[in-house]
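Hi team, as promised in this morning's meeting, here are the two structures we talked about. I've kept the exact order from the run log so nobody has to guess. The first one is mostly here for context; it's the second one we should focus on when we meet again. Sequence first, then the predicted structure tokens.
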Amino acid sequence: MFQGKAHKVGAHIDTDAIIPARFLVTTDVAELGANCMEGLEPGWIKRVKKGDIMVAGENFGCGSSREHAPVALLGAGIPVVIAHSFARIFYRNGFNMGLVLLEIGDDVSRISDGDTLKVDADAGVIDNLTTGEKIQCKPVPPFMKGILDAGGLIPYVKERLAARG
């Protein structure tokens, strides 16, 4: 369950807008987070609080397949991204890094910048606490939930290998 303020961005936000290439000299999560969205709006991170939620238009995360993009969002304190749709490679990278992603299609227009959202990813329910509206979406698939619960793909694989003995 997540609750936070919606930070709405447009369509076709690419990975260079999420974390510009000039910041890819590190894999430090906090440093990447401190520069998150610099390619779209310098200083964007100053408006964000831990637990806030990114809301985007179509094709969020298009462009380079860099895994730094979902890591930068996590480093910025964004645990979940809601979008009209995601670029396929970003979608997979996001889950692999432990970032919750929910696609809601045209219902994204029912969320405004600054709305307070409560998200139950397991049930696929987004409560807009500002407007009182409820948005139903597909819940996170069970096999992807296992990856998220472990904190990403690498911890998930380590857990599975350890369980084998």
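And here is the second protein, the one for discussion:
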Amino acid sequence: MSELTNLTLTQVRDKLAHKEIKAAEAVAACLARIEATEPALKAILHLDAEAAMDAAKALDAAGPQAGKRLWGVPVLVKDAICVKDAPTTCGSRILENFTPFYDASCIEKLKEAGAVILGKANMDEFAMGSSTENSAYKVTANPWDVTKVPGGSSGGSAAAVAAGQCYAALGTDTGGSIRQPAAFCGTVGIKPTYGRVSRYGLVAYGSSLDQIGPLARTADDAAAILTVIAGHDPKDSTSAPREVPDFEAALTGATDLAGLTIGLPDEYWGEGVDDEVRQACAAAVDTAKGLGATVVPVSLPHTPYAVATYYIVAMAEASSNLARFDGVRYGYRAPEAQTLDELYELSRSKGFGPEVQRRIVIGTYVLSAGYYDAYYRKAAQVRRLIRQDFLTAFEKCDVICGPTSPFAAFPIGQMTDDPLQMYLSDIFTISLNLAGLPGLSMPVGLGQASGMPIGMQLFGPAFDEAAILRTAKVLGTALPPLPQPTGM
């Protein structure tokens, strides 16, 4: 990376605020980094260099403004989030020519804070996947080793941040789609509490699960982005009317973990976890103890049912949400269709990829008459039990800790023919989405066998993102820093 793209978000922001560099210089540095790395990385679906440079020059002409927290900072946005006058494809052919005429609420807030939008990051089609191999346009590589996946579905956002193409990126997390790619790429990713960040302008996958959140290089950087995009939005009926603390300020002066109780769930540290993942996470827990934290055992007994529950709920909601893309109201329309039935059939079968079609079929099945009670209703009941597990555990601890993924990044193509195995890679992330609680993944080292980044999760009580950010900041400062990715 160049000297400029090697900086963290908060470091480059300070230089911008003190006029040590111009916004146009920060944007030019990112564009140069993108030009050098994108042929191998394939992390970006749409890059609008001219618009980004024009925005940066306009900021420079007006000068730094103290009230704008992200003044001049270049960022990327997952392609499921609407940005005015920029294509929003969701990684799907069915939305190939869709260009929104409005900004999502979180994009409005980023722009108001002075951030410069560089473009849109690659993703699994409609956020369905754990490897960014399901995009209809390209397969994103991991910047640590381009033969391996970056995780998914926000793999483009995570890879771009790790490779220095931008200082932060927005992702979405339906079943771990921010935290798992953050772990695979060695970045910090946070899924806020459901309702903390407005979903207005986000193309829905699973409406009761989706959350927008940041991917960044440090906890401070993630806190800076989250402080800007969080808050109640009357345009989103699920947005929580809760006061938003200054997450950045909450991290100021945090140097130890004295008084913090960390819960370790038995279900996250047992069978199925690779040795290198267990060792790296256990070493991080030992570091937390050395910083003053108390560790206690907790139990999340319904964890074994989380994968089945998640895929019933998520696919049911996906089948409903994606019904609007029918060739009539939205998206690709098959030109050869002769009848209305052919129009629906051909448009959807050609516009959607195989993974999306698989999930729509399963979702439609579990919602169908005769099977609703057996599947969807039962899943909704188990979902309540999973949430209660977390609430009970938080009576004994302040945060819960465990591996983000059972393994490090795997080779591209290894699981594409085995979707059930791919679904199981989310086993440690999806419970939190079902419970609607906040979670953060942070890098805790490189795997001894794979040499790839290992991520550890921190779970917090509802609307207490400050607790997990503060823990991640202190722990991240104490752990040895990761080297720069060398895979490109």
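Starting points for discussion:
The mean pLDDT is 95.
The chain is about 40% helix and 10% strand.
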